[in-house]
Amino acid sequence: MTLTKPPDKIFSEEEFSQFEKELLKTMEARLKNNQPVNKVFGGPFGTDVPEPRMNYIRARNEKVIRKKNAYITFGTDRPDGVASGYGGKGAQRANRIDIVVGRMASKPQDPGTEVNNSFSADAARIYLSQATKIDAHFGLTDGIVSPESLEGHSGIGIKADAVRIIGREGVKIVTGKGKGFGGYAMTGETNSRGGKIFRAAPPIELIAGNSSASKSVAIFNIDGTTRPEMINNLQPIAMGELTRDSLLELSDILDDLWSALYGFLMEQMTFNVLIGAGAAGSGVASPRHNAAWIPVGAYAAKNTIVMAQSGLNPMWNQRAKKLMWEVNYLKPFGYKYVCSRNVFST
Questions:
Q1: Whole-prediction pTM value?
Q2: Under DSSP, is residue 206 helix (H, G, I), strand (E, B) or coil?
Q3: In sequence order, what DSSP letters do the residues of 97-143 get, joined into one string?
Q4: DSSP label of 318
Q5: 39 with 131, same domain?
Q6: pLDDT tens track for 258-291
Q7: Is 219 domain-assigned?
Q8: Which residues contact 37 (CB under 8 A, 6 or more apart)?
Q9: Cα angle vertex 284, ends 283, 285, to 5°?
Q10: Which of 68, 77, 154, 313 could serve as 86's disulfide partner, Cβ 3.0–4.6 Å?
C-alpha cells in the first residue's frame, strides 16, 4: 500500500530566480518554439540537471567528495554540527565515512544555505563510525540492549524512506562472535575496542514504529469491574518447533483428562442406577460388569475404589503433568521455553 503520493513533477523551477529560469529553457520549450535543439541538456539522458544546492559546513578534519547534492565525507564522528559527536570532543579512533544524498530534503532551505548533517532531514544516509552513539544519532528507542552499554563502540546506520536487503540465495542476520578467527585469546573475537564480548548471543530487535515502551490496557472482569494490566510492546518471538511441541503435549494432557473424566462419569452412572434400585441390600444388574447381579451396598464400596482408580488418581497425575508442562514450555528456565531468548519484536 502506498502511504504517500509520488511527486507530480520530477523537475521544478519554483526555487530558481527569474534569471535562472530564463537560462533553464527545457528541451520541450525549445521544440515548442521551433528553436533548434542541437544538443541534449538540462537532465534528459543523464545530462547535468540544474537543481538547488545546499552548502555543507565542512569541518577542518574532513575530506568531502561531492557531486550535486550527493556526498561522501571522511572525518570523525559527527551527527550534527562540528561540535557534535565524538569528533566534536576531539576523540581519537572515532573515524567515520558518511554517505549522504539529498541534504535537508524534508526541510527545504534556500539555495546556497549552509547546513550541517541532519539524521532526520537528509534524504538517505549510510553512516559508518569507529566510535559513535549510533542509537542516539538516529533517534532510536531503547530496547533490550541499553544504548549506554554501546556508547563509544563502532556502529553502522542505514536510513532512507525505504531500505531493502536482498540476498538471491539467502539473508542472514547474525549477532555475536565470528567463528574460526585466529589471533585472539581463549575468549575469541573481541569488540572494536578490544574488549570482551560478554553476551554469547546478543539480541536481535525488530522494533516497528520505533517504540518499545510498555502500555496499560483495561481488562474487564466478569463482575463488570476493570483492572489495569501492563503489556510489553517489545516481546520475545515464539520458537516455532518448541511452540508446536508444547501444543502437542497440551493436546495429550487434554486427551488424558477427557479419559479420566469419562471413566468417572461411567462409574457414577452405574452407581446412580444402583441407588435408583431402591432399598439397601437389594441388587441390580450392573451395566459395567457383564450384567452381573451386585448388591447395592457391596457395589457402593467397590464403586469408591474404582472411581479413585479411574478418576481421582488420573486427575492428580494430569495435574502434575500440566505443572511440568508449564515449567518446560512457559518458564524462562524451562528447557523448551517457547519464547526466544535472543530475538525480540514489536
A1: 0.71
A2: strand
A3: EEEEESTTTTS---TT-EE---TTTSSEEEEEEEEE-HHHHTTPPP-
A4: H
A5: no
A6: 877 777 777 676 666 666 555 444 554 555 555 5
A7: no
A8: 27, 30, 31
A9: 140
A10: 77
